[in-house]
Design brief:
single chain; 309 residues; 2 strands; globular; mainly alpha
């Protein structure tokens, strides 16, 4: 899976998408960023900020990866395949928060200190996706979450393009592309587990879906709004950036990718779990349809100087 990572001089870097302040004409480049960013409505800006804060909590996610039993990086420089993947994945993901943070700063439309406070709170609070140090649970979680992140960034890219901000559209499309590669890697890990222990991985997948996949930024707060994630998520759902329908589609995608409809030779319990999983997408779509009727009330966000979104 290492081949799915980009490293070295050929890898893209945040500076490739930002004004170069060491060159003549940098003022014009910044003015162009700000002119295009002025077209982004506040509600989409809030979603972008929330996505960026989620990316900036990267230290928490690498900590999670290194809790998976048998898949850790015990020395910090281990040459095992998993350790190399974990560090390479982290180095790629690190670009996302850096780039979005700098872009938002250059727009001049956000309260960057409030955003920085939110990032610090989120990293301090951490998050618990209920992986239980189990690589099976960890790989199912990352298979789901990487696809969810890809969908969110991809939708923001499309909306930014429609608003006339080609800079932001390119940025979010590039990040979504990274998430797509990472998604394929984690889903391939699960495919390999299915060849060796189909009962085990299917029972884990079903157990996780009987709960709910924890979003990595659920504990975000700016120190003022204890329900900040709910407010941010409500805006994302109203804009169709990430909704309950996407949640259902992701579950269906994983079922299809892992060909769960056609797996045979399972134990009785695992077979019941397989049947349960295959029925879930339709159930989630019905729930999403009902929740669509509930419209989130506008909320003030400190990230945009207490304007409503």
């Amino acid at each position: 899976m290492i081949q799915l990572l980009e490293t070295g001089e050929s890898a893209w870097q945040p500076q490739d998408f930002l004004p170069d302040l060491s060159k003549e004409g940098w003022q014009d480049e910044i003015e162009d960023v700000r002119r295009q960013a002025a077209n982004i409505p506040d509600d989409l800006l809030v979603v972008l900020v929330g996505d960026m804060i989620t990316e900036e909590a990267l230290p928490t996610y690498q900590t999670l990866l290194n809790t998976f039993e048998g898949c850790d990086d015990p020395t910090g420089t281990s040459e095992g395949g998993w350790a190399r993947w974990s560090r390479g994945w982290t180095s790629e993901e690190n670009r996302h928060g850096d780039l979005l943070n700098k872009y938002l700063y250059l727009t001049g439309r956000c309260d960057m200190r409030s955003i920085e406070v939110t990032i610090q709170h989120l990293i301090t609070k951490g998050f618990n996706p209920d992986a239980r140090k189990d690589p099976y649970r960890g790989f199912v979680y990352t298979s789901f979450q990487e696809r969810a992140t890809k969908i969110s960034h991809g939708n923001v890219a499309k909306m930014a393009a429609r608003c006339g901000d080609k800079n932001l559209s390119k940025i979010c499309a590039k990040i979504a592309s990274d998430e797509g590669r990472h998604e394929r890697a984690y889903q391939t890990f699960v495919k390999e587990i299915l060849k060796r222990d189909p009962d085990g991985i299917i029972r884990v997948f079903a157990d996780m879906m009987r709960g709910q996949i924890t979003m990595p930024a659920e504990q975000m707060t700016d120190g003022k709004d204890p329900d900040l994630y709910t407010s941010f998520s409500g805006v994302a759902q109203r804009l169709d950036v990430y909704t309950g329908f996407d949640y259902a589609d992701i579950v269906e995608h994983l079922i299809n990718t892992w060909d769960l409809e056609n797996i045979e030779g399972l134990s009785g319990e695992a077979e019941r779990d397989r049947e349960y999983l295959c029925r879930l997408p339709e159930r989630y779509r019905k729930l999403a349809e009902r929740s669509k009727r509930r419209v989130a009330e506008p909320k003030q966000f400190s990230w945009i100087f207490d304007r409503e979104a």
